[in-house]
Design a protein that fits this description.
Blueprint (H helix, E strand, L loop, with lengths): L5 E4 L2 E4 L5 E4 L10 E6 L5 E6 L5 E6 L7 E4 L7 E9 L2 E8 L2 E8 L4 E8 L7 E3 L5 E5 L4 E5 L4 E5 L14 E6 L5 E6 L3 E6 L4 E6 L14 E3 L5 E4 L3 E4 L4 E5 L7
Antiparallel strand pairs: 1-2, 2-3, 4-5, 5-6, 6-7, 8-9, 9-10, 10-11, 12-13, 13-14, 14-15, 16-17, 17-18, 18-19, 20-21, 21-22, 22-23
Length: 258
């Protein structure tokens, strides 16, 4: 059997394997332009979002539960701003907070919704931070550093080596970062042209120069992803590449507009 994959459309959650309707979120989920960014748990039970009205807290919706969302706030931190959200497991949420002058990663267990342990990271942003498929590791990219943390231990476990082919800020203009499906390697798209792959220990194992022009990517959209079988990658949802050939092999064009 194929692993279950869920998707949300207009507040309803579906299993993409068979099209089954799994349930619905409260009507307020469908409020237009209410969310700055939002994430859905892998089983479709929870939806977490950061509201445009209040970037200091998280709104948590539970499928098939009516009424207003639960608000997860961070009173222990001084003037926090939520910059990143992801699920590390169906019942575990990880939030990235900017608490000037620092950045914190905060673990939240659901359905309780109470902030738990935290650890300091170098940077948080919705497009230059990602979690491994097994939920164990957090990768954080800033203009000058690229680090990997063990989420459970709250410890830095690797620092990625800078490429000698990039002048100036070594990780500036990061267009997306993603672990390979087996979490043994990690890659990032730097300056829209350099696709760099690192080992778990931070050593560069491959660097591919992308020579095709790409359209700009909106803030918050993950612009780089590996194919499930690790054979290639997809950039900005339009450029399909083959790792063995080390080159793009197809460009997908669409007439769809936001």
């Amino acid at each position: 059997d194929l692993p279950s994959t869920v998707v949300m459309f207009d507040g309803s959650v579906y299993d993409t394997n068979n099209g089954e309707l799994l349930g619905r979120f409260a009507d307020s989920v469908r409020e237009r332009n209410a969310s700055r960014f939002e994430v859905l748990s892998s089983d479709g039970r929870f939806l977490a979002r950061v509201s445009r009205r209040d970037e200091k807290a998280i709104e948590l919706f539970e499928r098939d539960v009516d009424g207003p969302p639960r608000v997860i706030s961070f009173e222990k931190y001084k003037q926090p701003t939520v910059r990143f959200l992801t699920f590390t497991a169906p019942d575990r949420l990880l939030a990235g907070l900017q608490v000037s002058p620092d950045f914190k990663a905060v673990a939240i267990r659901l359905p309780e919704g109470s902030p738990g342990s935290d650890f300091k990271v170098d940077h948080v942003g919705q497009r230059d931070i990602t979690v491994s498929a097994d939920g164990k590791y957090l990768a954080v990219v800033s203009a000058t550093k690229f680090e990997v943390y063990d989420i459970q231990k709250g410890e830095r476990v690797a620092v990625m080596a800078p490429s000698p082919n990039i002048q100036g800020l070594p990780f500036g203009m990061c267009g997306g970062v993603a672990f390979l499906p087996d979490s043994k390697e990690i890659a990032a798209l730097i300056r829209g042209q350099h696709l760099i792959v690192w080992s778990q220990r931070g050593k560069i194992v491959d660097e591919i120069l992308i020579r095709m022009r790409l359209s700009s990517t909106r803030e918050g959209r993950q612009s780089f992803a590996w194919l499930p079988d690790k054979s290639g990658w997809l950039i900005e949802g339009q450029l399909l590449g083959d790792r063995e050939l080390r080159t793009p092999i197809a460009q997908i064009k669409s007439q769809l507009k936001d």
